[in-house]
Amino acid sequence: MYKTYGNASEIDIEFLEDKYNLKLPDDYKYFLQVCNGGVLRPDYEEGIPLIWKDKIINCVNVHVMYGVNTGAASDFSDDPIFDIDFWMDEYGDDAPPHSLLIGDSPFGGFFVLIAEGEDTGVWFWDSNPSYHIERPDDGTNTYFIAKTFTEFSEKYLGWKP
Predict the structure, then answer these.
(1) Of 25, 64, 70, 131, whose CA is between 20 and 30 Å from 14?
(2) Is residue 146 part of a domain?
(3) Is residue 90 in some structural domain?
């Protein structure tokens, strides 16, 4: 990670779990405690393939990973746009079930942590047609990336717990 947002406290993480009625995986909680989200280093260009029926239909990059109560501001907004709560308040009702919006891509779409159920893992949710992704006939707009947050972070964030 190029820039991190400090450290989330155990109380902040427990509040997040209670608010969204989720049991977050230990590896993601550790990430919040150590980094609390952040921005990837500018030269980290690892594309994440979006695969549907064994075919790569596009690649996306990570722009930012959100944190909890980061207090981080951007150059263009006074809103807490680096906080999970900000994006969950905006899009949480439309997000996949049992999920948390944990980051975004530079051109739109969210990285989603599905915390329970058979779809547990990290996914990319193309929440709007920003990527002009070739959409499957079944209307799919959520693409599997990794079974665990650790797998995702090591491969695509360059961050190892």
Answers:
(1) 64
(2) yes
(3) yes
Torsion angles phi and psi, residue 146, rounded to 5: -155, 150
CATH code, 12: 3.40.1580.10
pLDDT tens by residue, 79-132? 678 899 999 999 999 888 899 999 998 878 899 999 999 999 999 988 876 555
User: Is 38 buried (19+), middle (13-18) or exposed (0-12) by CB count in 10 A?
Assistant: buried
Tokens of 90: 């905006």
**130 residue type, one letter:** S
Helix runs in 35-144, H state only? 84-91
The total of structural domains in the chain comes to 1
Half-sphere exposure of 15 (CA within 13 A, CB side): 11
DSSP 140: -
pLDDT confidence bin for 138, thresholds 50/70/90: low
145 touches 110 (CB < 8 A): no
Residue the block writes with tokens 């030269």: 43
Both tokens of 53, joined, read 């029926």
Run of H or E including 58 = strand 55-60
Q: Is residue 46 part of a domain?
A: no
Q: Which residue has the tokens 């260009």?
A: 45
